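Changelog-adjacent note: as of this version, every example in the card shows the full chain rather than a window. The one below runs 186 residues end to end.
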Amino acid sequence: MSMDFFVYIKDPDAFSNLAFETYCTSLGLSVKLHPDLNLLSDEGFAPVCLTDDRFAQNGSNRFMTGFESYPSPYQPVVRNTQKAHGLLSLFNKKPKEENPFDKKVEDSSFVFALRCSGMDSFEPVIAHLLGAFCIRNCGGIFDDPQFGRYYDDAEELEREIAFAVNDLLAEAEKGNLRTHPFEGWL
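Full-length structure tokens:
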């Protein structure tokens, strides 16, 4: 089962691979993006090497993971704001509905559309890390349509990441992690 996420950002110039990797390290996860990867322009699978002794399997603590990424400029949704005039306006009054999510992302200039295939246990955590980094450093909003939820507070998303890592540790103890050993950048 695949999962899709969207990361809307106001300032794509504030993004760099090194800054993202450093951020992940500050949260206790050693993440390295493929050295030739440019997340702001490259489409398709974004390879990531995760190194973590807590998940060691078969003598290896390095894992190949990642997600599909489809970056693009973001154009906010334009709502029809025409007003009815005359007698019709009395009967066609609709309460003005302002969607809080649309309001949050209206100043965004860029969006990452991310897809996690479910083939790897670490994929969603890496996608959430990207979202939290972008919230903290790029004026980001992380949208999780599976749960109908968005995050604009990095600390809140970081707590979700910590819960997810704890769940992964519990699955690792049971031998239930779906992983791929890192054998180098292919």
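Structural remarks: The longest strand covers residues 62-73.
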